[in-house]
## 1
Amino acid sequence: MSLRKKQNVKKSSPQSVPSTDQKKGSNIPDDSRTRLWELFNMIEKEFDNIHAENTALKEKVDSLSDRLDLITSERTSNLEMTHPPYPHTPSTGTGNTPNLLPPLELPAHHSSTPLRIIRTSGTNITKKLLPKKSASYVKPLTPECSHVFTYYGHRDGVWDVSCAKNGLAILGSASADNTACIWDINNGTVLLKYIGHTGSVNSISFHPSDLLVCTASGDGSAHVWKYSMNIMERHRIRQDSSGDDKPVMSDEEGMDGGSHDNVTIKVPLLSLNEHTGPVMSCDWVCDGEHLVTASWDHSALLWDAQTGTVVHSLDGHDEELTHVCTHPTQKLLVTSSQDTTFRLWDFRAPLIHSVNVFQGHSKGVSSAAFSLKDNVISASDDHTVKIWDLHNMRYPVASIRQDCGVNRISVSHDHHVLAVPLDNRHIKLYDLGGNRLANLPHRNRKEHLRMVHSVCWSHDKHMTTSPGKCNLFSAGFDSRIIGWKVQY
């Protein structure tokens, strides 16, 4: 009997014969069962081969796309050099001086006149509509991008990240863990933690010159609070005494919060509570005397930063606001909304303000930002980023299509480069003509593991040339903040 069992085992391979438990309750003959297992193995191998082929094809398509972008940009630059300068953008002699011409060539709405909506087309805009540049135009060099440091300390996703505008090497972050943090950019330690909000902190913005910070929260409020230079001095003393130039933290230590030796602030200088819904975004006006907040209650509010009173209520959006951004040197601001529009508000006239509505996207607008080259850039859930000329916003000068939703974008005022954070964990860099410059490295698990929600460029020009220092920062739902070095 035992000999017969051994012979039966030798007739079939171990891979093709199921276990005794698998045979129980089954009426499938052994031969059919073996054949089914063979077919399943063949199907699995075929799927593996198809996956490998698709991966190779995707890499080939990416390589060809990069080559096509390079060829197109070279041909475009050669063509543009044969045309006269763009008549709407006069030369000012400096690369960072705004070229805004008062008044803007836009049909504006004033508080006493009916609102006019500008319906923009441009879903099929190509590079042929790019503005003509002068013969002195030089195609930007492809930057070298590298990971520098990962900042750990938040216990939930990070909604927003912002750099100080007063020259200090500090970074601010807003997180779903109800806290906002100020970091030392150079070594990644938390200098200060703000815990005054009772809901998710959705946005953070530094005052243009003073030691003030504004944060917006899902608890329906925006808080203005102050940090001190003492936190920087204390940190330098601790750093000198320890002898460490840069703390080394493992991923486990980082996720546990990193260094706990930091200052905590709970009470704000001002609590702005006029919104009736979660406050999604905030920003300071360039004069530093006012700030603006955007909320899910379909409105944005302009505040007096000294008294905490509402100066203007910016109404008109039909759905929730997602973002607000101010111009770095002019009293202009742009609000973005889920109603597929973004609105340009002009407060340069002392007694009256104007607003223009732009319908250039098919889904909600997630963010918009200004450049110092008279551009507004809008990003949307319709997988597009569009670059507009402030002098003629009926058509975008460039339309950039992505594979997924786009979040809070940022423009470098030093190099005029656009950073685009995406839902698929990638970050891409473009010039203001819509040409792709680079993709940030995405390997070795040093990149974001979940959606990238916000990016920001450093405002310190000296940091962009310092070896090993970060000049671009990104924040994602993996609770990480990553510092990148983008070098030309």
## 2
Amino acid sequence: SVGQVVRRTALIISSRASGGAPHIDPSKGKIGDEKMSMPDTLGHAVGPERFELLARIAGNEDPFEMNIKQRAQGSRDEPTMIPSMYDKRLVGCICEEDAISINWMYLNKGESKRCQCGYFFKLVELEHVDYGQ
């Protein structure tokens, strides 16, 4: 029974490691040793916080795509692509460089939307990366 658990765990870890992302030990920081008196930050993190920490270790500084994006051409044929993990996302457009307000709008997956300033935006699916949570 213990042997089966060890084999199953090894199989899960090896299948996650072969997913293309850099291998990160899922128990990193959770198992103490002589040098460690308490688990590190990664050992205490769960859920979205752990996902973000593992992404940063793997080199992705913006796993939730929250950084400011520069507008592309923004035409009907070439809208600014906004990645999202969900079917709907709230987006703010700063229409002019010296504007003191932000025009907010909801984007729905698969359809382009025009801002008040004339630029078009389109929601596209964000590729999910498994960081070995």
## 3
Amino acid sequence: MCSSKNKEKIKVLIGIDEIYSSEKITNCFNFRDQYEVVLYDNEKNDSNDLTYNFYWLEYEYLNFEKLINPSNKVLFNSFCIRKGLIRKAQIAFYLRKYLAKSQSQLFKHLPETYVFELDYIDYLDEALNDCFEVEQALESNLSIKEGQNTKKFILKSSMTNKGAEILIFDTKKQLKDFFIKRIENSEDEILDLREWVIQSYIEYPLRLKFYNNRKFHLRVYELAVGNLKIYVYRDILALFALEEYKIVKKIEDNNLDIKSHITNTCVQLEGVDKTSEEFANAEEECVKRFWDLRFDENEDRNMEIKGNIFKQIKYSISEIFNCLHHEPTVFQPLENAFELYGFDFLIDENLNCFFLEANAFPDFKQTGAFLNDLIDCLFYQTICVTSDEFFDEAKICEPTQMCLVYEKKNRRIF
């Protein structure tokens, strides 16, 4: 590495609307002498201005036309085309296509997923015809005997996140009522969101007695760099529901406690005053470090379980990007760009790990006040892996929390 003593400072423009993330990113750069930080201002900054070396901005603020082919050396924080990863229907389609022609074991880590498109409520039956397995299961549920479990599904909008636009259902009527309600709350007969996915609901998630048998999912941060290396950030979050998870044999009126099923932190803390002690206590109960969790009373077994789960996560993420780098129309990594994603995984009672979805520009503040250092370290090590290498700067520390799981040139897959 070259010494940075005699170099001009690297000019960084930061424009992240969410204050929590903006301050942390800024602080990471300010800790380094070779970086000079300027905060983005909508009124003052011109998107055509390429006088900076590093742009860490909201997606909407990035001038991709200028940044992709700059006249000077420029690094920025998002790929332009990545809908194949972050839209649930798109990634479901391309993963199914990939699995059909490969010997990948990724299918073991994916819930059954069906793309569901609906423009008008009158065409619900026709739309379900394209999801034949779902339609058949819903019909079979009608004849389920008393005391038996129905086959359940979860409906998700292809583009929304934070637990929005979700329905857990086991009858066609529940699905129809959901869309009717959406239309009643709209001024148009045409559904504003037409692209959805229906997944088999993982009805038996892992529940840990040490945490009152509450359902949880894992938020895994992943860093995609250049054209293309994939790193998994080792410090994983476990996001818990606040209430005990109880299995419902059949979904009936008001018998499904949605807050015990949907583990997104924003859903769990909805309506709680953010300045209150209640919020602070609830946040601490919702958000925990994966590596601190107790899966078993025996410590050796405890670490073995966590190691196996992490291995499944790394394999799944590497395979997902092995799929997507062959699909340039929906995912185009760029040599002078990087992007942080939030991947969500759910563990079932047999310790199988399932990929649920990927989010661009994830909500880092859901980490909460108690685990601030986790995000500080994530941003700092992101700078080490991306900017320091790109601008040939000496690293102050090695990014030990960043685990390389995929490299396009070598197809390094775990």
## 4
Amino acid sequence: MVPIWWISLQHDWSEGLAADEKVWVSAHHLNHKTCHSYLTKRAAVDEKFSSNLISSKMVQVTHNPSNTSTKFITPSVQHKQLTDKNMPFSIDITGSGDLGVVTSGKDIVVFESRSGAVRRTLTGHVADVECVKFFPSDLVLLTGGNDMSLKIWSIEDGSCPVTLTGHKRPVSGLAMIDRGKHIVSSSLDGTVKIWSCGTQECLSTLTPDSGKVNEIQISSNESGSGCVVSACERGALTVHSLHDNNSLLAQFQHSSELTTCCPVSQHYLVAGSVEGEILTVDIRNTSKPLTVHKRSNYAVSSIVRDQATNRVWCALRDGETFSLLPSSLSDTTTDTTADTTLSCDTNLSCDTTLSAGDCEPICSFAAKNSVVMSSAKDRIVRVYDV
């Protein structure tokens, strides 16, 4: 692990600077003493930091001794009444950014992302709904719950024409292939199932054999065929083919539980651990991670890639949400044996941080086409324009 500097800023800095008050700023490093100072509307109070107030919702802060710079963005809108009964579990946003969906208890709330107006509240699961995804059409929803079932919903009329059962423990993750012709689900029962939406049948079941499957994502391999990536309780990050009898293509083994995963290109994956590590892995050589990025001991709750910007957004249990730019992880790299830790970690430094509640844990996160949406334990849904 190559330690790096990162910057944190008072969560309500926008209100503080607008009121012409001082707001605190800190620069952190795992091997150095934390550097503390203050910012004002006009400038930093000492030479350790400099700042550029780009707008009322965006400020660029630089730690001068390390030449580390981070852009901080506050929410464009906040919705406080969508999940007033229960803590939100999962969230997603349409490709256009017009609609969002958040699950809260057994309810599935579809809402207008800018106004917060509720379009529909869908009910039908008999236990809490843990995950939700929009189909590519943005007109249909897929949900998975603690009742071990998957449901497909029409946003237009609120109907639920399809319910899929077969998992033996709660559903933990959802993904789609062939624009929703087939869907993939993971469960705390340790399995990954591939389903046909047309026939409503389970086509195959994968068993990563590493305890609970916490999350799944879809990637592609050299031939362009699909792969399913699984992050598992016992530290395994597995890649199975969606063809060829679902053969195991690659497996990386970590020392602690992996909570989330995200493909960033054909060969490279990013995964998060329960101990706060963000790992980049080359599936062609899984003997060790390419990089390990860590800033705290709080678990990584979510990693999401926005394909429009190539940003990889990471959310931690302590409420920190920031983006990494994996610019060095291109598929033109052919040397899989070289020690690329230093160069990769330099490119994985944080470039943008989303300001939110004061250390409120992030429950779920979605990013599409430069619009980011998050739900937190304070029951507020936040929308950012990044």
